[in-house]
Amino acid sequence: MGSRPLTTERARRRRRQLLDVALDEFLARDYDDVMVDDIAARAGVSHGLVFQYFGSKKELYVAALEPLLAGFRARMESVPDGLGAEQRLRRAVAAYYDDAAAHPAAYRSLMSGGAGFREVFERIEAQRWEEIGLIASVAGLDVERADVRAVLRGWVGFLEAAILASLDRPGADRDALVDAAIAAFDAAVGTLRAHAA
C-alpha cells in the first residue's frame, strides 16, 4: 500500500522528465531529425520505456508540445475584451509571431508536417480560428459566410508564409511583419464589406 503512491509519483516524475527532454529536442531540431533513442539516452532510460509512456514518437511530440499550446492559448485569452478589432488582431499576430520566433524548429515542423502532425495542427487551427472569428465578428464580418472564411483562411496562409520566411532571415523586423499582416487583413475586410453592401 505504501509503495503505490511512491510508484505513481515516480511514474509522474519520469513522464515529466521524458516530456522535458523531448520538448528540448523538438524545439532544437526538426521533427524528422529527432530520434527517440536520443531522447531515451538523454533521460537515462531505455528506448522501450519511452514507448511504454508514449505509444509513438508522434504521441510524444503531441504531449511535449502541449505546454506551448497552453501558453499560446493563455496569451490569446489574456487579450482584454474591451480592445477593438485591430488591437486584438495586432496582439494575436504579435503573439503568434513571437511563439514561432521563440521555437523556430517546432514551428517549421508544424507548418511543413504531414499527417503525423494532424492532431497538433488541428488544435492550433481551432485556437487560431476561435480568435480570428472573434476578431472578424468585432470587425463586423459574418464568419459563417463562405467567402469570409475563404478570405480569412487565405490571410492566415499569408501570415504563416511570412512568419516562415522571416525565420529563415535573421534580423527580420517583427513590427514590420505585424503591420503588413494588419494591412493585409484591413484590405481583405474592406473588400469583403464592399461586396456585402
Tell me, rounded to a whole number, the average pLDDT: 83
The strand count comes to: 0
Percent of residues in beta strands: under 5%
Tell me the span between the first and last alpha carbons.
Answer: 71 Å
Low-confidence stretches: none
**CATH level 1 class label:** Mainly Alpha
How many strands, which pairing sense, and closed or not: the largest β-sheet? none
- Structural class, judged by helices and strands? mainly alpha
Number of helices: 9
Could you estimate the helical fraction of the residues in percent?
over 70%
List keywords for this structure.
single chain; 197 residues; mainly alpha; Tetracycline Repressor, domain 2; 9 helices; elongated
How would you describe the overall organization of this protein?
The protein is mostly helical and 197 residues long. It has one domain: Tetracycline Repressor, domain 2 (Orthogonal Bundle), CATH 1.10.357. The longest helix is centred in the first third of the chain and has 26 residues, at 3-28. It starts with a helix and ends with a helix. The chain contains nine helices and no strands. The chain has helices spanning 3-28, 36-43, 47-53, 57-77, 85-102, 104-112, 118-138, 146-167, 174-196.
